[in-house]
Amino acid sequence: MTRQPGEFWRSERGSVTPMIIGFAAFLLVLVAVVVDASAAYLQRQGLTTLADGAALQGADLGSVGAYTDGIPEGRLTQSAEQVHTAVGQHLAAVGAYDTYPGLAHDVAVDPGAGVVTVTLRAPLDLPLAVPGVASDPVIVATGRAAVTVQR
Known about the structure:
Elements: H1 7-11, H2 16-61, E1 63-64, E2 77-78, H3 80-93, H4 96-99, E3 104-110, E4 115-123, E5 138-146
Antiparallel strand pairs: 1-2, 3-4, 4-5
Helix pairs in contact: 2-3
InterPro entries: Tad_N (IPR028087)
Domain Putative Flp pilus-assembly TadG-like N-terminal: 14-59
Transmembrane segments: 20-42
């Protein structure tokens, strides 16, 4: 049995179309993942910068006793209440609540070590929806600071 010219091509007609559609779908998902990962990375970097600045502000403005008790050896002690106030004022002054809607912060003060730790949490608004990814991810960043005394 011999094939007529063109018979071979007619039998495989359209077999490339599903492969092209599958490849295009794969590329679209890949682009969405890269865009969303980039958005998450950039937001984390921004929150890390804010957390570092807030921790430095809290450690600096939350220091107490230097004027009344003199300068201690090592690190300055912090008042938890003053640190919380300084961190909140710093975040409001730099516009963090406007830049990151839903921003929440936690402040931990270790009076023995004189270390202030600020943790920021903000929801991430993903630019593109990727199937299988949580619809409301949260980005978390932490900053730590201590004011040391050098003589």
